[in-house]
Amino acid sequence: MSDRDERRREKTARRGELSGAGPVREERAPARFPGASAKFALFGEVLTVGLLITLVGLLIITLPTALVAGVRHMRRFVAADDSNLRLFWADVRAALVPGLVVGVATLAVTLLLLLDIDLARSGYLPGGALVEIVGWAGLAALAVALLVVASAWMPETGWRAAIRAVPAIVAADVAGALYVLATAVFVGVVTWALPPLFIPAIGCAVLAVVAIPVRRRRDA
């Protein structure tokens, strides 16, 4: 066999290993996220998840449910597990009814904070600048909490366990919480600039929420 044929076979074997379609060679450890090795397929999945979350979350109060289903679907995809869309809809059905309470509470708090910011900007409130800062900080904290809850939710434990886990998750990985905050700000900025960009932006946010907790850390 010529060197050219050998290199071609090696390239084919490496491509199959990275994609999960071929065997893993003994001298190399398996990829951490085999489903994410095909970049174009990952990009397509980000758009698909973004579209699904947008559709399910159209009522606003259903957005938490859409996020938990999207996160679980993306987690299965990057792990090269079964990422059939029927599992996404199964998660939607499991999270929907109790998730409406979370959605209503999230919407109420969001509207209250936006009202505070609007009143602070009107000039009628004493210390308006401080009130506005508190309002924006509250919105940021709410966005981070919502994304962390979406990451922690499981059908077996439900919404209460996911919400109660937020302080511990944030305390255990403050840098990760800041990354999640940056992700939420990114979604807000691009949606404000051009609303249709919410679809790819929320898909990217879901991918970030999946990747941030399992990233390699310097202290690991």
Automatic annotation (TrEMBL):
Stretches for region Disordered: 1-23
Superkingdom as given in the UniProt entry: Bacteria
Entry keyword annotation includes DNA-binding: no
Keywords, comma-separated and alphabetical: Membrane, Transmembrane, Transmembrane helix
Transmembrane residue ranges: 46-71, 92-113, 133-153, 165-191, 197-214
Keyword Membrane part of the UniProt annotation: yes
Amino acid composition bias (Basic and acidic residues), ranges on this chain: 1-17
Protein name: DUF624 domain-containing protein
Source organism (scientific name): Microbacterium memoriense
